[in-house]
């Protein structure tokens, strides 16, 4: 990069002219030098350049009012200098600033004058900036025409920087129109040119643009990686990144991270307002926020943000953007429960406008118009709009094809074709399956399933109406716990990720120690949050390698494995009501139970009761908790409770019922009960073979009220077991011993993170053992017992997925887990765990050993509640 001094800059015309390219190589350095030029009473030409540099800096990174003030002065000084090309160049910069400030007509007038005033090479640069303004305004045809005229002249002049900018812009316009291959070709050509320049800001922008291209081609991990790289480059330059925030919001939404996208957009809006920045960017950020809020099921926020975006875009004469904002606004109003013929007409008008503008979002608008028309019973109108939307199912990026298949499914439902509905849903979910498996991080795989929630619901509704319980079971399984169908991608060696995780443990341990001393820890907490962001970022960048379980769910295979003695109860939720699918004795039967919302409320009451019973002296609460258990059984099992037989029962609940203590339900209290995220997961666990050798590993973490008494006593029972305690119970050592073990027992404090389930942890001697750590195991223990609070808590994400400690273990080779879903009394846990291991030593499976351990406990409220709080997951 150039190291020209201030004295050199003020010495000659060439040095001052060099400030213009410097503003996109080292923006802050260019600003300082331009301000120095003005302090030395420069000649008109130099004054024009210096004011233009300051105006560009303020336009892109600061206050638009100051930008316009400096650019108008630059225009006036150029006129005094008598240079037509200098005046044309400044008019182009001023025109862009006026457009960004929302003064569209004035901006285009200035750009038009710049084109007329400029000649040759300068005129080509002005054409580029007018093309950029056309792109900002959403006039893509005009943008491509101006770039077409500019590129040959810039190439002929040997202007590497501006040619690269023009190619980058052309690629970005192609992306807006859905032409990904053309965009990638232009980005590649531009990147070759940027490589021979020192334009660091432009290079960062090129990386950001490549991230957008990766996203448009369906590669979400690559898009996140490139956008993060661009952010790092911008940070080194000290420049704001509002456009980056807009693009990141789009990628985050596609990854199912709508709440994060909304937070990013709102933060960027506040920052932009604080500096008086570009109103065009504010409008785009408001649109991003509205989309994110709509996806996050917050229609009120989506409506407010979208309405403001519509007003801003209309005032800025940005028809392309206004149409997209109106689409989000109509969708938010529909989500809020509004239904009217006018809303159908508005959605259809937006759809037609998007077609006129060549926008890839047009099918989404037609789908919305069709959906609203169906709600109103206007089947003819609905068919017309849905037929257009359905055309997108054959080509384009995954989410666009899913829009088409959703439209096709709604068409089939309106026509009364169950077969057509199920076929469209199957094809749409297949598209999403392929997309999900490009994602390496289990969190992204789980969250991405939200995109298929409507298709899954339509299929279940159709299956229920057709009357066949087997068909409903197949569709209940089709979109349940799919994130667990294959292990997450694990980078074989990522030194940066490992370094972040080591630092995270150290900081978290120091913060915990400082809290216990009663001292505040704000600095440590900030660093911990920073490291969490870094770890999560690295894991989200991983691209998927596994292809999941290609075998379709086979009801016959399930029934064969269940035999005559075992019952599997899968709870499907259709239109808010629990449908009980009872599998066993060679058949599937359906029973209707209660409302899901009522069951969720009752489950929360039960959890509150168990928390009270974990403390001595709460005996009087026992009848209340038992009564809640009876009500919960009526809501969840209904008449099926009378048909469970006498043998073991496997419960497959929806994600929203993951905290139910199943052993509390009267019909399950004396039974062998296990829980599985899906019937497919249970089959995989049942067929998992134990590792050769069957090593036992016992781990005792620090700070336990009982001192981890059960581990000491179990060490005597398992003579050859590996015992890790005190300083030996470090995360690296524990992971090394857990890998491939036959049986592991971990007594350690557990914490569940609702704000970041992948950072839920077990406390070891050197800090937290988090979910991300477990995912690095080659093979998790065949059986694992987690004898601490909250280890069986999960975050419900996506369509019906769970994130937590237990779900991290199941895809990695664990066939059975015992974990706890509520706070428990540490002292009461010890006899329960000892009795559990007695059963295992006698050759019992985990669920049966846990049942017998509960029966062996004293019959008081404290010990009974402790037994109910523990659940067996898996099959053995």
UniProtKB/TrEMBL annotation:
<protein>
    <recommendedName>
        <fullName>CHAT domain-containing protein</fullName>
    </recommendedName>
</protein>
<dbReference type="Pfam" id="PF12770">
    <property type="entry name" value="CHAT"/>
</dbReference>
<dbReference type="InterPro" id="IPR024983">
    <property type="entry name" value="CHAT_dom"/>
</dbReference>
<dbReference type="InterPro" id="IPR011990">
    <property type="entry name" value="TPR-like_helical_dom_sf"/>
</dbReference>
<feature type="domain" description="CHAT">
    <location>
        <begin position="627"/>
        <end position="874"/>
    </location>
</feature>
<dbReference type="InterPro" id="IPR019734">
    <property type="entry name" value="TPR_rpt"/>
</dbReference>
């Amino acid at each position: 990069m150039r190291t020209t001094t201030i004295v050199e800059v003020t010495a000659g015309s060439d040095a001052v002219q060099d400030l213009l390219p410097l503003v996109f190589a080292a923006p802050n350095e260019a600003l300082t030098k331009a301000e120095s030029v003005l302090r030395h009473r420069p000649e008109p030409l130099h004054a024009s350049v210096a004011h233009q540099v300051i105006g560009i800096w303020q336009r892109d990174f600061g206050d638009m009012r100051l930008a316009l003030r400096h650019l108008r002065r630059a225009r006036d000084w150029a006129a005094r200098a008598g240079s037509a090309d200098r005046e044309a160049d400044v008019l182009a910069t001023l025109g862009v600033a006026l457009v960004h400030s929302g003064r569209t007509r004035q901006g285009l007038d200035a750009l038009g004058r710049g084109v007329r005033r400029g000649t040759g090479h300068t005129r080509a640069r002005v054409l580029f900036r007018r093309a950029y303004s056309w792109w900002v305004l959403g006039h893509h045809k005009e943008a491509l025409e101006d770039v077409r005229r500019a590129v040959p002249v810039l190439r002929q002049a040997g202007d590497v920087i501006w040619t690269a900018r023009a190619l980058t812009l052309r690629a970005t316009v192609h992306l807006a129109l859905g032409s990904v291959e053309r965009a990638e070709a232009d980005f590649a050509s531009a990147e070759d040119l940027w490589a021979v320049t020192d334009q660091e800001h432009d290079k960062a922008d090129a990386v950001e643009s490549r991230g957008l291209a990766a996203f448009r081609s369906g590669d979400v991990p690559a898009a996140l990686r490139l956008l993060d790289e661009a952010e790092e480059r911008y940070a080194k330059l000290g420049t704001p990144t509002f456009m980056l925030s807009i693009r990141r919001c789009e990628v985050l939404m596609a990854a199912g991270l709508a709440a994060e996208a909304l937070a990013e957009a709102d933060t960027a809006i506040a920052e932009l307002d604080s500096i008086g920045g570009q109103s065009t960017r504010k409008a785009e950020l408001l649109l991003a926020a509205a989309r994110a809020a709509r996806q996050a099921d917050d229609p009120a926020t989506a409506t407010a943000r979208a309405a403001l975006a519509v007003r801003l875009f209309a005032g800025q004469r940005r028809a392309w953007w206004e149409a997209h904002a109106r689409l989000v606004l109509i969708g938010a109003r529909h989500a809020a429960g509004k239904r009217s013929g006018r809303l159908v007409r508005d959605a259809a008008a937006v759809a037609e406008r998007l077609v006129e503008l060549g926008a890839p979002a047009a099918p989404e608008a037609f789908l919305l118009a069709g959906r609203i028309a169906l709600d109103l019973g206007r089947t003819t109108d609905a068919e017309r709009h849905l037929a257009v939307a359905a055309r997108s199912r054959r080509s384009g990026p995954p989410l666009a094809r899913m829009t088409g298949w959703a439209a096709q499914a709604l068409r089939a439902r309106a026509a009364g074709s169950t077969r057509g509905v199920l076929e469209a849903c199957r094809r749409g979910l297949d598209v999403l399956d392929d997309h999900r498996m490009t994602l390496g991080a289990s969190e992204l795989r789980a969250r991405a399933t939200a995109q298929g929630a409507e298709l899954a619901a339509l299929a279940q509704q159709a299956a229920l109406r057709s009357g066949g319980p087997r068909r409903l079971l197949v569709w209940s399984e089709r979109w349940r716990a799919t994130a667990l169908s294959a292990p997450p991608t694990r980078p074989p060696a990522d030194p940066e990720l490992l370094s972040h995780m080591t630092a995270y443990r150290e900081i978290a341990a120091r913060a915990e120690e400082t809290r216990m001393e009663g001292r505040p820890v704000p600095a440590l907490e900030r660093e911990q949050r920073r490291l969490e962001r870094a770890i999560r970022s690295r894991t989200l960048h991983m691209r998927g390698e596994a292809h999941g379980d290609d075998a379709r769910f086979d009801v016959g295979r399930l029934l064969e494995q269940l035999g005559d003695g075992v019952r599997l109860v899968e709870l499907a939720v259709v239109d808010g009501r629990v449908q009980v699918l009872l599998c066993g004795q060679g058949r599937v039967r359906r029973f209707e139970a209660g409302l899901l919302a009522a069951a969720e409320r009752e489950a929360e009451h039960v959890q509150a009761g168990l928390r009270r019973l974990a403390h001595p002296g709460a005996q009087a609460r026992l009848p209340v908790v038992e009564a809640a258990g009876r009500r919960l059984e009526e809501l969840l099992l209904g008449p099926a409770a009378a048909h469970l037989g006498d043998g073991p029962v496997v419960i497959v609940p929806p994600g929203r019922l993951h905290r139910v203590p199943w052993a509390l339900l009267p019909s399950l209290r004396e039974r062998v009960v296990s829980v599985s995220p899906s019937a497919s997961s249970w089959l995989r666990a049942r067929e998992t073979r134990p590792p050769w050798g069957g090593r036992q590993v016992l781990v005792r973490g620090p700070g336990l009220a009982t001192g981890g008494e059960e581990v000491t006593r179990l060490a005597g029972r398992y003579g050859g077991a590996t015992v890790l305690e005190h300083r030996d119970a470090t995360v690296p050592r524990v992971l090394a011993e857990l890998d491939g073990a036959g049986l592991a027992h971990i007594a350690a404090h557990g914490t569940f993170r609702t704000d970041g389930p992948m950072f839920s942890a077990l406390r070891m001697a050197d800090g937290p053992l988090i979910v991300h750590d477990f995912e690095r195991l080659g093979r998790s223990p065949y059986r694992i017992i987690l004898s601490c609070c909250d280890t069986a808590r999960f975050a419900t994400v996506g369509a019906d997925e769970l994130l937590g400690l237990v779900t991290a273990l199941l895809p990695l080779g664990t066939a059975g887990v015992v974990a706890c879903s509520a706070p428990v009394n540490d002292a009461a846990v010890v006899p329960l765990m000892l009795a559990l291991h007695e059963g295992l030593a006698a050759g019992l499976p985990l669920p049966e050993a846990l049942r017998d351990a509960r029966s062996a406990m004293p019959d008081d409220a404290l010990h009974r509640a402790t037994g109910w709080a523990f659940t067996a997951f898996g099959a053995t």
